Amino acid sequence: MNTYWRILSFAKPIGKYAVPYFFFTLFHAIFNTLTFVLIIPILNTLFDGDQVLGQITEMPHFELSVNYLQDTINFVLYKMYGTHYEVMNVLIFLAIFIVCTALLSNIFKYLGQWTIEKARIITLQRLRNKVFENVMSLQVGFFSNERKGDIISKISSDVQVVQFCITSTLQVLFREPFLIIGYMFALIRISGQLTIFTIIFLPLIAFIIGSIVKKLRRPALKAQEKFGEMVSILDESLIGVKIIKGYNATNYIIRKFKKINEDFSAISRSMAKRQQLGSPVSEFLGVAAVSVILVYGGNLVTGGNLAASEFIAYIGIFSQITRPVRAITDSLSTINQGIAAGERVLGLLDEKSQIVSPPDAVKLESFNNEIEFRNVSFSYDCKKVIDNISFKIKKGETIALVGPSGGGKSTISDLIPRFYDVQEGQILIDGIDIRKYDIKSLREHMGIVAQETILFNDTIENNIRLGKRDANLSDIKKAAKVANAENFILETENGFETNIGDRGMKLSGGQRQRLSIARAVLKNPDILILDEATSALDPESEKLVQDALNSLLKGRTSLVIAHRLSTIHNANHIIVIEHGKIAEQGTHQELMDKNGIYAKLIEMQQLS
């Protein structure tokens, strides 16, 4: 129930929609009921016109009864035609009256539906925004443990299912009850005796259908989870299509997708079977009830306790009352599905970032002195990746991290912008622990060129502008020139306005990397982190980009990670990382003189 109320909270202020919906559905119920009640005067006019017409010459006193409606209509007819008029005139008048009541009924029904649709759309918009905002605020480590496809499924598919909680709730609270009340009132006014006899069928219908749909919540939750798995497989398959085909793994992936799809379909069939059973069961029970009423009501008519016209109207109204009863049970079913999906969505919304700015955060206005790693240790789960590392990066220095793969070099670079937080020790900027800084201000002073080039399905211009949204085209062109990207950009179809496709797949690996470098150049950060920034470049481009980077690095504080050691021999200080620890450190020449790990790495690369 807590999930249900939390979902409804996204529709606040609920009164903005509930109040007008209340009145729209109330008037819809009144005019809808009136349309069926008008069957009585029509039949009376057809079969007892001589006894009924022209007898009411004064406006009757108001009362909630069928006789009052009949007398009011006769009084209006008397005012229009006098004491003698044709039956056809009466039928035309009643037909127009019914058309008007039906029109008003459907106008109010439309207004009610439009109100509920506005509530649904706005609620979904708020929920999607809130969930996406929360997901984007989570620490990087969260996404290492979650399947991207499942997250996408929760934000898209699950949120769509949650909408039923909003629409169905208002219908269960107002529209269907109002219709039932209206119909029941009309039935009681026509014949209280017959209504007491027939009223036992409504709880019976509700109980039977309710027992069918009450167990939908658990399979609905399983269905949403399976759908999330299916989206994950789809996402991974599309991203890795080259690898899948290259390793002839297409059939394996297809079988994997089919298995999950089969499980999802089986759960969906089970739910659909239970859902769709409600309508025919209630239809059958309704027909059975009408059959019983025909016998009992017919006995009342033949005994003179009920007029034939009233009995026919009674049957017509009773046949309609099962519709809102069915609608309520269907709504309860969809609410259950909405709650099941809501649990998954709210679970994602309840995830809180473990890396946040403290309440008394200090804003990093400028970087003045140094970055210091002081006895820093870090682990992924139970595996220690960084083990008691200490070093300093003075302002304007270039520090290079080298060493075997898996030693922890990239993790060290991820700790500076607080993608992860240290578990032991401290990282300080200008003597202040970076955990005391406002995260946004901390990252504003940093530019990152990652080993994995991340570009977006957008224009070249917008990809370069990512870190500096107010940059003009002239600045973007200068950054592209520094990154040796200008020539290939101008050769594209639309230059800087060229769309580079999903993840930049229209470009080569070297071109994508140069755009990533141009993005960092444009931001012009105080602290530059280059994680294998030239790894995807061919030798010629690497030389040109490295020259540009050397110019960019002058006077700038930089942390450079490189496997190609030829690119970092000019670094102020080189730190060799092995098994999460500092194995060696010094200048290029000092490390070569030691003839240790660094010298062996240089020798191996020269031999290769």
Question: Could you give the topology of this structure?
Answer:
Layout: H1 2-9, H2 15-37, H3 39-52, H4 66-81, H5 87-137, H6 140-145, H7 148-190, H8 192-198, H9 201-213, H10 217-239, H11 241-246, H12 250-302, H13 308-349, E1 370-380, E2 383-394, E3 398-402, H14 409-415, E4 424-429, E5 432-433, H15 439-444, E6 446-449, H16 460-464, H17 473-482, H18 486-491, H19 509-523, E7 527-531, H20 539-553, E8 557-561, E9 573-578, E10 581-586, H21 588-594, H22 597-607
Quick take:
This protein is of the alpha/beta class and 608 residues long. The protein contains 22 helices and 10 strands. The two termini are 66 Å apart.
Task: List the keywords.
four-stranded antiparallel sheet, 64% helix, 608 residues, 22 helices, 10% strand, alpha/beta
Description:
The protein is of the alpha/beta class and 608 residues long. Helix content is 64%, strand content 10%. It is built from 22 helices and ten strands. The protein has helices at residues 2-9, 15-37, 39-52, 66-81, 87-137, 140-145, 148-190, 192-198, 201-213, 217-239, 241-246, 250-302, 308-349, 409-415, 439-444, 460-464, 473-482, 486-491, 509-523, 539-553, 588-594, 597-607; strands at residues 370-380, 383-394, 398-402, 424-429, 432-433, 446-449, 527-531, 557-561, 573-578, 581-586. The strands form two sheets. A six-stranded mixed β-sheet has the order 6-7-8-3-9-10, sandwiched between helices. α5 runs antiparallel to α7 (148-190). The protein is elongated. It starts with a helix and ends with a helix. The model has no long low-confidence stretch (mean pLDDT 79).
